[in-house]
TrEMBL record:
Protein name in the entry: Uncharacterized protein
Pfam families: p450
One Gene Ontology molecular-function label: iron ion binding
Keywords attached to this entry: Endoplasmic reticulum, Heme, Iron, Membrane, Metal-binding, Monooxygenase, Oxidoreductase, Signal, Transmembrane, Transmembrane helix
Similarity field: Belongs to the cytochrome P450 family.
GO cellular component, one term: endoplasmic reticulum membrane
Gene behind this protein: LOC106831784
Keyword hit for Membrane: yes
Major subcellular location class: endoplasmic reticulum
């Protein structure tokens, strides 16, 4: 048998068995990859030295955990002018898809829905889902928004009559947006604002568990997480949500008529709303191929998840800002009263949405000050050259701070001041469209942003028509999780208004 000299390891000649050769090849392969990774890492670190950095906690943790959002503002690395907003246009390009470090925690729940898919699959699904957010579809949802907010307001009036007008806006508005979404997505009324719903409880639990897992680094490993109590709760809640969605899809497939989208729109307009599941079942790509049941479930579950928390956060914070600025609140109220003065019942219709300019300005300024999603991540698939010549190397994961962009004093003077007139048309002419990105930007921006703005306008208009909102207790501290919350809840006092003019 041939002899193999290992004198460089301090060993004499040994028999060159196949297993020993395999071990040496494997060790060499591993060593080569470690060296290549180390070289790449240090090369990237060297190339990133041209960007300003905050002080490190220590050599091991680096900057981890230093970015925080509190009542006083945001602390983090200074935002270079080249990155705000010109750099954002490059970071939101197709060459920088979403990073999956965090998003993968959602995959067992949301599958390959739009936020988690990439490449050709994402492009195909995005094109197929676009008709679901056409104004002809959204128009029919306005009635649902009115109905859901009416239920919430009836509850508020009952609580106020019992002396409990001190309310956590997140708790009440989240249930209301989930109620709306179940009706818009599935045409299903769970009465979840009035009684417990297993499905709604499962969605709330999944959101909380994903947030909790993200904060526990050791549980980022799947095999460890699935051994924990939280991991078992997560799988159980996923099954419940998936079973509900699957049952609706199967039932709808049996009853959906064999006709095109335009014909179905006309037919259902007379009897019911065309819901999200209907549109997905009828969707076809340019080759005439339909979405699979698994794809439909992923997109429906994604809409339920992404649509309730973000809208609830936006509404809770705009009510908070108007509670702190009663002069703006009163101007919004008068605008709504003027619009609905001769109408009974007093409900918002699709054509009314363009007739509420000041209320819209108040919503946008609140979304600037308190964006529901505080940051998005992108992974660079190639070197990105910024306008000033600096380069973000390929492979770098970039966290794009929506909160930081909205609070950049070079773009927004006195950024902590709530001033709706920033969004007066005269004041927006010279401002970059990337200075205000509550729904992200670029090809992967939020497909449901018109849906969200429509719901916020309806809910805010009717709320201010029927209630006066006032601050309650201490100033809330911002708490960024999946969406921007407030520590301990966002508490406001609501006072019912009489039906007549004030």
């Amino acid at each position: 048998m041939p002899q193999l000299s290992l004198s460089w390891l301090g060993l004499g000649p040994v028999a060159a068995s196949p297993w020993l050769l395999l071990l040496l090849v494997g060790a060499s392969w591993l060593l080569a990859h470690v060296l290549a990774w180390t070289y790449t890492f240090y090369d990237i670190v060297h190339r990133l030295r041209c960007f300003p950095q905050p002080p490190k906690r220590n050599w091991f943790w680096g900057h981890l955990g230093l970015v925080s959002v509190a009542a006083g503002g945001v602390w983090g690395p200074p935002l270079p002018r080249s990155m705000a907003p010109d750099g954002l246009s490059l970071m939101s390009a197709a060459i920088a898809p979403k990073d999956m470090v965090f998003y993968r925690f959602l995959k067992p729940w949301l599958g390959d829905g739009l936020p988690l898919s990439g490449g050709d699959k994402w492009s195909r699904h995005r094109r197929m889902l676009t008709p679901a957010f056409h104004f002809n579809i959204l128009k029919s949802y306005v009635r649902i928004f009115n109905d859901s907010v009416n239920i919430m307001h009836a509850k508020w009036k009952r609580l106020a009559s019992e002396g409990s007008a001190h309310l956590d806006m997140f708790e009440h508005i989240s249930l209301m947006t989930l109620d709306s979404l179940q009706k818009c997505v599935f045409s299903f009324d769970s009465n979840c604002q009035e009684k417990p719903s297993e499905y709604i409880a499962a969605i709330l639990e999944l959101s909380a568990l994903v947030t909790k897992r993200h904060q526990q680094i050791i549980l980022h490993m799947d095999f460890l997480y699935h051994l924990t109590t939280d991991g078992r709760r997560f799988r159980r809640a996923c099954r419940l949500v998936h079973d509900f969605t699957d049952s609706v899809i199967q039932e709808r497939r049996r009853t959906l008529p064999d006709q095109g989208l335009d014909d179905l729109l006309k037919a259902k307009a007379k009897v019911k709303t065309l819901d999200f599941i209907d549109v997905l079942l009828l969707a076809k790509d340019e080759d005439g191929k339909e979405l699979s049941d698994e794809d439909i479930r992923a997109e429906a579950d994604t809409f339920m998840f992404a649509g309730h928390d973000t809208t609830a956060s936006g509404l809770a914070w705009v009510l908070y800002n108007l509670a702190r600025h009663p002069e703006h609140q009163e101007r919004c109220r008068q605008e709504v009263r003027e619009l609905l003065r001769d109408r009974e019942p007093k409900e918002i219709e699709w054509d009314d949405l363009a007739q509420l300019p000041f209320l819209t300005m108040c919503i946008k300024e609140s979304l600037r000050l308190h964006p529901p999603v505080t940051m998005v991540s992108r992974c660079c698939t190639q070197d990105i050259v910024l306008p000033d010549g600096r380069v973000i190397p390929k492979g770098v994961i970039c966290l794009i701070s929506i909160f930081g962009t909205h609070h950049n004093p070079s773009v927004w003077p006195d950024p902590e001041v709530y001033d709706p007139f920033r969004f007066d048309p005269e004041n927006t002419k010279e401002r970059s469209p990337l200075a205000f990105i509550p729904f992200s930007a670029g090809p992967r921006n939020c497909i449901g942003q018109t849906f969200a703005m429509t719901e916020m306008k309806v809910v805010l208009a009717l709320t201010l028509l029927r209630f006066r909102v006032r601050p309650a207790g201490e100033e809330p501290r911002r708490k960024p999780e999946l969406i921007l919350r407030a520590e301990g809840g966002l508490w406001l006092r609501v006072e019912p208004l009489s039906a007549g003019p004030q």
